[in-house]
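Project standup — Tuesday

K.O.: blocked on the structure for the chain from last sprint. Re-posting the sequence here as requested.
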Amino acid sequence: MARAVSRLRLRPRPRAAGARETDRRERHALALPLRLLATACAFVFMVAFAVVLARLTLHPSPASEALTHTNLHPGRSLSAYLDQPALRDAVKQIGGNILLGVPFGVLVPVVAPRTRGVLRVLLLTAVVMLLVEFAQGALVTGRAFDIDDVILNTGGALIGYLLLGRRMSRTVHARRART
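H.V.: unblocked you, prediction finished:
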C-alpha cells in the first residue's frame, strides 16, 4: 500500500487548461530591470515621435494656404490623391500618413500597458490624431483638417500594433500567474 501511495504522489497533477499558457507567459516575461529599461526606451521614442509629429503637422505652410481645404467626408482626399497624374505624390501622401500612425501601434502598448488591445490602441490613436488635425485646421497657416489623415494614421497604428506592438507589449508586460 505504501508503494501505491508513493506512486500516486510521483504522478504529476493534471493542470487546468489555462495553466500551460500561464507557465509560458511567465517563462517569456522579462526581468524587472529589463522591463523598466524597455518601458523607458519606449517612452523616449514616444517623446521623440511626438516632436517629429509636431514638426511635420504643425509647421506653417503659408505657400499652400490657397490650396488647403477642410475635408470632413471620408475618402474624398484619398480619391483626390489617387486621381493625380503623379502616382509618386499619392504614395507620398497616403504612405506618409500611414507611417505616421505606425509608432502609436508599436509604442503605446509598451508605454501604457492598460491600453493594450487593438480597440484601445485604435481609439487612442484616433483621438490623438483628431486633436492634431483640429490644431492644424484651427491654428496653423496653410494646413487644414482632413478626416482621411485620421483614418490613414489610425490604419497605420493598426499595422504597427499587429506587426510588432502586441508582441512587444506581451514581452515587456507579461501577465503573472495569480496565486
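K.O.: great, moving the ticket to review. The longest helix spans residues 32-57. The mean pLDDT is 80.
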